[in-house]
Amino acid sequence: MFFILLMPVLAWAEGGHGAAASADLTGTVFGYLGIIIFVLAYALVPLENSIHLRKSKPVLLAAGLIWVLLSIAYIRIGDTHTAHQAIKHSLLEYAELFLFLLAAMTYINAMEERNVFQSLRAFLVSRGFSLRSIFWVTGALAFLISPIADNLTTALLMGAVVMAVGGDNKKFVALACINVVVGANAGGAFSPFGDITTLMVWQKGKVQFSEFFNIFFPSLVNWLIPAAIMSLAIEKASPKKVDEKVEMKYGAKAIMAFFLATITTAVCFHNFLHLPPVAGMMLGLGFLGPLSYHIKLHEGRSERYDYILGARGAESVYPITTIVKSKLDLSTIIEKVDLPAFAIDANHTVTHWNKACEAYTGIKAKEVVGTRDQWKPFYENKQPVMADLVLNYLPEKMIDRHYEGHFKRNEYISGAYEASRFVPTLGEKGRWVSFSGAPVKDETGEVVGAVEVLQDFTEKKAAAKHFDLMKKIARAEWDTLLFFYGVILCVGGLAQFGYLAAVSQYMYLDLGATSANVIVGFLSAIVDNIPVMFAVLTMDPAMSHGQWLLVTLTAGVGGSMLSIGSAAGVALMGTARGTYTFGAHLKWTPIIILGYAASIICHLFINSHLM
């Protein structure tokens, strides 16, 4: 990455020419520092799951520093206006993307809360399909759902189906996850709603909404060829049928219909009213407001206001800090706690189950201590409890999958989390419970187990049980949205220095548009496709409509080559930890590259009149 960013400096030294406003800044110390800061900050992004540093933090810092350097560089040549106007342009770019994604994420979260995706998952895992059938069904659904629900959400949904059916069959789970990632990325490439890169291309007006379907068949080829070859490695056995049934909540179908209406509104705003699509998306978000109010009335909570965005509920959380940081023996302190509590060792075996836990769950300590049955009081089917999740230091996306956004980090203990959910198996009609889990460490700092404390708040929850639109907005991926801010400001700043103009000269004039656009796909497998595509749009090279379709395709599907090349791949590595890995994906990279090449050839053939 560092070499790529330095190429324009070398090209400039050889006599390249760019925009006049940026030409004199490419060879300044401020420009060099800007490149170094961006490279260092972006180098931390792929390490997010390893070092537990959110990807938004380094790029936010880099964005601010780059614009400070740019402003100083302009001031030194007596220009106090250009930097100001340039950053306003970048902020406008971000505002459109931010509001568009905020509306889309809110609808996705609303559908998840109404059990839309969960019911689809339950339907698939209870059909009794063979492993090879599940492989094809999940891949096909990933390809078909991602154009609407985005590739990340689709990959997590289909990945959950794969893991539920595949169980301990690691080979099948790994292959099916690869297939889901390739399918989700390919499906997202021919729709503005399928990926951030396609959305940016549409908002820039480079490709009209209907024109994205020109790359439908190339996208299909990109998924079908690797899928057909990988399916030959899937055994024909049938897994054990999983009996699971999830009903969609009241209003789920209406929310789906309103989401489709919102997409239609955004397209109509762009095509017929000549307004930004984001204005149509925000109008669509307005559709959801009256519907959410109707659902709240239906659930009988009309006297309660929705929580304001960012506000927390009044749920009290037990200070598990006192247990973990106590100097007393774990058995002693857990028994002294008057709330239900239990502990597990490093092998996820129950070691302590206090009397309060016996009374609350109805399960005696002698029945559960020494087993891995800590899940039985809370779930009908085996799945990890909070203690299991914090013991494995699983990413927050995995915790979110189990607690649907109703969780937060403990402010005082590293690796500890607090969550809440309704448990239908407790009591006669089910109970609302808060779960606090934390890892337990020995004197050397090594994790030797985990402890979990429960607190019932059914009565408090009854006073606020309704569909809350503000909570759906608050559950948007704020880290992702802030990451986009950092990327757009960083790339915008480097463009203002003049570097992207020189890169455009090298790639699109010296190498040619087709070669450059193919390289973009390979870059998006190594570097996130968002900054790569935004850089291309900022360069705005003069090329045919067919070439804009080509770069849309390659940036969208190129990330499938590596597991770290797309958000879908990174997310599945977290949920299928130890099974779907970088190495497992890398074994099939040549086959995926074959599909990548075939999709490009397909595009060059069927869209030759546009090239």
TrEMBL record:
PROSITE patterns named in the record: PAC, PAS
* GO MF, one annotated term: antiporter activity
Q: Which residues form the PAS domain?
A: 326-370
Q: Where in the cell is it found?
A: Membrane
Keywords in alphabetical order: Antiport, Ion transport, Membrane, Sodium, Sodium transport, Transmembrane, Transmembrane helix, Transport
GO BP terms: namely:
regulation of DNA-templated transcription; sodium ion transport
Where does the UniProt entry say this protein principally localizes?
membrane
In its keyword annotation, does this UniProt entry include Ion transport? yes
Tell me where in this chain the PAC domain is found.
Answer: 417-469
Instruction: Reply yes or no: does the keyword Ligase apply.
Output: no
The family database entries (Gene3D superfamilies) matched by this protein are listed as:
PAS domain
- Superkingdom of the organism of origin: Bacteria
Name-wise, this protein is Sodium:proton antiporter
Q: Which organism is it from?
A: Desulfosarcina alkanivorans
